[in-house]
Specification:
heterodimer; A: about 350 residues; mainly alpha; ABC transporter involved in vitamin B12 uptake, BtuC; 2 domains; 15 helices; B: about 325 residues; alpha/beta; 4-stranded parallel β-sheet; 10 strands; elongated
């Protein structure tokens, strides 16, 4: 399709007379299978071999009326349900959040390089987590303050960048907003590095956090992350059609009756909420927010009605599979997941890029 | 853009973190180039200067008995005071928190500022780590440097103390301290004979970083005849692998040693609360040792205290 043709299609879609293709049933089914297979593999495999068959028996034993008995010992049961399963669940949530936030940022800023960590989310979260680790806050309130600080830091970073961008560019120019984000990120990163250098004895812990990990301390993290994930995903999916309209340009969208600034603020807020929840529990996992939406675009086209939900699902499955590699590649030791996402993601993306012609949001 | 910032930050951190992991958690892997420290010329008791010793930065010649020592190594600081050379020490780094009378300054051993160190006009600088050209820079200023990397095992730790005796003119005292340590530790090890074959998990941080038998702390577990569950992670290619929680739980170690109790606030109670960890006998039976972070990350005279704590826990475990 030519550029002019695409623009016509979008404008037509925005007026509602000729819809851009949404998700085809075939893609929806394929992606669903991908996520389910990833989750099952994530449960069946790990550094401790439980045996795929025995895990299957254990799963079936929870289905009533089948009469299947589990053959797992008490320790194996704990490994499966208290260590492995919450980790798979957190992987699904974090992957979905990062990939859908990435797709949303790319749409709202019309910038193919936008990612969930744009606008200072990563730098803010990094500073929050580093402060807690370096000054050894411990858990005065009875729980680990690291996720709370990372969450607050991410929100603070984005809020500052947004306020700065608005005050300079009046919310009209995406370039101003992105520049404001880079500025805020550079500043917060400098503070984070300073704090970390002043507390060299905790540098390894900070480093491990920055490279990302999905190790959980049980289901609690999953349950805390879930509401944020639901709210963020629901808001983004709700706005997927408006993202299609925004893609034609601010002025055109405004002329079609879209409140551009308000939609942008809402989408940025929803994506940031999801990103903050993801980094709070998993650290900074790079590349998922860029590679997953682009891979999806290369497969199904550029309409956000397809890209957003498919990115969400593919991101979830992708991160569970990546974490499986982290858990098993050098077992019983672990690899940091941020390294693996980039190491595998970059060549995969390059291959997809080479085999297709068009790219871009 | 941000991605790049993160990657840059990560790359810088990687170098620092690796070096620190070596320096902090007492590793032997970093001193591959230099043999374990040992005085090349065993000085006569009436230590006549000049004296030449071998350290991790090669031959070091000390012209006269030093009286203005700067120690950037928390381990060396403890050893210097233990051998009675504390009066010759004019400044120690910000990590040297033992003994209390050590002249603590804001000098950093991890990010040393050569100018600030030279400002003390030292006649000997002792370091455990050589970041950013520290040794070269000081030598260019004509200041002798003794580099003592983390010891690989107990013998290397004793030798470092004797080397410190040689360079400070306290040969006899240093020998006595090292011999006393060795005697006490050997006695403790002998008393824990019954514990041989038990397994141990040494925890360095909440992310389940541990230490293999290739480290100083691991070499002590090895001497006690303990099986170290971190040794299964040889594929990590590091003496400080990050273990899977699944592996720790399924290995069911007989003894858990927490080495981040001060900095990190981990206790037997917090460990018991971790999901799935109640399956570990050491947790339900109370065989969780809350070790002193400082002592477990150094290789000085207080190592005796650490061995005593571990042996006591092993005896309790055996009694259960």
């Amino acid at each position: 399709m030519t550029d002019a043709g695409r623009l016509r299609a979008r404008l037509a879609a925005a007026r509602g007379d000729r819809p851009l293709p949404g998700i085809s049933l075939a893609w929806a089914f394929a992606v669903l299978v991908f996520v389910v297979v990833a989750a099952i593999l994530g449960l069946a495999l790990g550094p401790v071999s439980l045996g795929a068959g025995r895990v299957a028996r254990e799963l079936l034993s929870h289905v009533p009326f089948l009469g299947v008995e589990s053959s797992l010992t008490e320790t194996e049961d704990a490994i499966l349900w208290e260590l492995r399963a919450p980790r798979v669940a957190l992987g699904l949530i974090v992957g979905a959040l990062l990939a859908s936030a990435g797709a949303a940022y790319q749409g709202v800023f019309r910038n193919p390089l936008a990612d969930p960590y744009l606008l200072g989310a990563a730098a803010g979260a990094g500073l929050g987590a580093t402060l807690v680790i370096a000054y050894d806050v411990g858990d005065p309130l009875g729980f680990d303050l690291r996720p709370v600080a990372a969450f607050a830091g991410a929100l603070l970073g984005v809020a500052t960048a947004y306020a700065l961008g608005r005050s300079v560019g009046g919310g009209r120019s995406t370039a101003t907003l992105i520049l404001a984000g880079v500025t805020v990120a550079a500043f917060l990163t400098a503070v984070q590095t300073f704090v970390q250098q002043r507390n060299a004895d905790t540098v390894q812990e900070v480093y491990a956090w920055i490279l990302g990990q999905l190790e959980t301390s049980g289901w609690r993290e999953v349950l805390i992350a879930l509401p944020y994930a639901v709210v963020s995903s629901a808001l983004l999916l709700w706005h997927r059609r408006l993202l299609d309209v925004l893609a034609v340009g601010d002025d055109e969208a405004a002329s079609l009756g879209v409140a551009v600034a308000r939609v942008r603020l809402l989408v940025v807020a929803a994506a940031t909420l999801g990103t903050a929840a993801a980094v709070a529990f998993s650290g900074l996992i790079a590349f998922v927010g860029i590679i997953v939406p682009h891979a999806v675009r290369l497969l199904v086209g550029t309409s956000y009605r397809a890209v957003l939900p498919l990115s969400l699902a593919v991101g979830a499955g992708f991160l569970v599979l990546t974490d499986l590699i982290c858990r098993t590649a050098i077992a019983p030791a672990e690899l940091p997941i941020g390294v693996v996402t980039a190491f595998l993601g970059a060549p995969f993306f390059a291959a997809v890029l080479r085999t297709t012609r068009t790219v871009g949001p | 853009m941000l991605q790049r910032l993160i990657v840059l930050m990560g790359a810088g951190l990687l170098a620092l973190a690796l070096a620190l992991a070596l320096a902090l958690a007492a590793c032997g892997g970093g001193s591959e180039a230099a043999p374990a420290t040992a005085p090349t010329t065993t000085p006569e008791p009436a230590a006549a200067f000049p004296v030449t010793v071998e350290a991790d930065n090669g031959h070091v010649e000390i012209a006269a008995e030093p009286s203005r020592i700067v120690s950037l190594s928390a381990t060396a600081t403890e050893s210097l005071f233990a051998i009675g050379a504390g009066g010759q020490v004019i400044a120690v780094d910000d990590q040297s928190n033992h003994p209390a009378e050590a002249p603590v300054t804001d000098l950093s051993g991890f990010q040393p500022n050569i100018e600030a160190i030279a400002g003390y006009e030292p006649d000997l600088v002792i370091a455990a780590y050589d970041p950013g050209g520290l040794v070269n820079g000081l030598e260019r200023l004509g200041i002798p440097v003794l580099l003592q990397d983390a010891a690989r095992d107990l013998d290397a730790a004793y030798e470092q103390i004797e080397t410190l005796g040689a360079v400070t003119g306290r040969v006899e005292e240093a020998r006595a301290v090292a011999a006393g340590m060795e005697e006490e530790i050997e006695e403790l090890i002998a008393s824990a004979e019954g514990a041989a074959g038990l397994s141990v998990y040494h925890e360095l941080g909440p992310d389940f970083f541990s230490a293999t038998s290739g480290t100083f702390i691991g070499s002590i577990y090895e001497r006690l005849g303990l099986e170290n569950i971190a040794d299964d992670a040889e594929r990590a290619g590091s003496d400080y692998p990050q273990l899977s929680a699944e592996h720790i739980v399924s290995s069911n170690p007989d003894l858990i040693v927490l080495a981040h109790t001060k900095c990190g606030g981990q206790t037997a109670q917090t460990v018991a609360k971790r999901a799935g960890w109640r399956q570990i006998d050491a947790v339900t039976e109370g065989n969780v040792v809350e070790a002193d972070d400082d002592i477990t990350s150094r290789w000085g005279p207080r190592t005796v205290e650490f061995v005593a704590v571990v042996v006591e826990a092993l005896e309790e475990a055996a009694a259960r």
